[in-house]
Amino acid sequence: MSIKDNLTALKEELPKEVTLVAVSKTKPNASILEAYDAGHRVFGENKIQEMTQKWETLPKDIEWHMIGHVQRNKVKYMAEYVSLIHGVDSFKLLKEIDKQAKKHNRVIPCLLQVHIAEEESKFGLDKSELEGIVNSEEFKNFENIKVIGVMGMATYTQDQSQIRKEFAYLKSIFEFLSDKLLDISVLSMGMSGDYTIAIEEGSTMVRIGSSIFGARNYSQ
Q1: 198 within domain boundaries
Q2: Which CATH number do you get for residue 29?
Q3: Does 140 reside within a domain?
Q4: β-strands 42-45, 19-23: how paired?
Q5: Pure H helices in the chain
């Protein structure tokens, strides 16, 4: 099946209120343009340099989402154009995004990344760290970022009950923050292997790559 066919099938399956982020990392511009020509506009990258190169050459109405781990010293390269930063996992990173967004007179939407998996390798904040951030005076004074939701990645496992439990926990964090922050609307969870469970547990945004573009190319 073509990229267009894959996208069409996916969009027919996903509920209308769920945003599809097409994960285009390592994919060439031609593949992204194929998805673009099929009407898709939201793409996710995990390397700022690669995303910036694509932003410079591809149509300007594309929404670029930074879905990978973000190093603070690289925020400046995407502050001009990024539509949403998914993996905000520290107060220092929020502070840097606010600083760089100010230089471009922008308000950058962000998701706070919550650690929900059993794997230590996954990044993210725990509930007490989240509370510390949203209750701080400095956070309330940020003018160039807008926290619009939370993101989390479940453990890589075949145990669906565990995945469901982790997603349910993230939903509870989302609801907890909804009482504290006015702009919370995005619950980003679910990837190619587990997005159906994520949607059942309340996800409003899924990140899917291989089901659209085919197997990932790691050689680049």
Answers
A1: yes
A2: 3.20.20.10
A3: yes
A4: parallel
A5: 3-13, 29-37, 48-57, 75-78, 91-103, 127-134, 137-140, 160-178, 195-200, 210-213
pLDDT (tens digit per residue) in 43-72: 999 999 999 999 999 999 999 999 999 999
The domain in which residue 112 lies consists of 3-211
What are the residues whose beta carbons fall under 8 Å from the beta carbon of 133, sequence distance 6 or more? 91, 94, 112, 125, 139
Pull the structure tokens for residue 210.
């291989």
In angstroms, the CA 111 to CA 130 distance is 12
Looking up tokens 């349910």 gives 168
pLDDT tens across 183-193, in order?
A: 999 999 999 99
Residue 106 is assigned to a structural domain of this protein: yes
Tally of domains in the chain: 1
**pTM for the predicted model, two decimal places:** 0.94
Residue 205 lies in a domain: yes
Q: Are 131 and 150 in contact (CB under 8 A)?
A: no
Contact yes or no for 103/82 (Cβ under 8 A): no
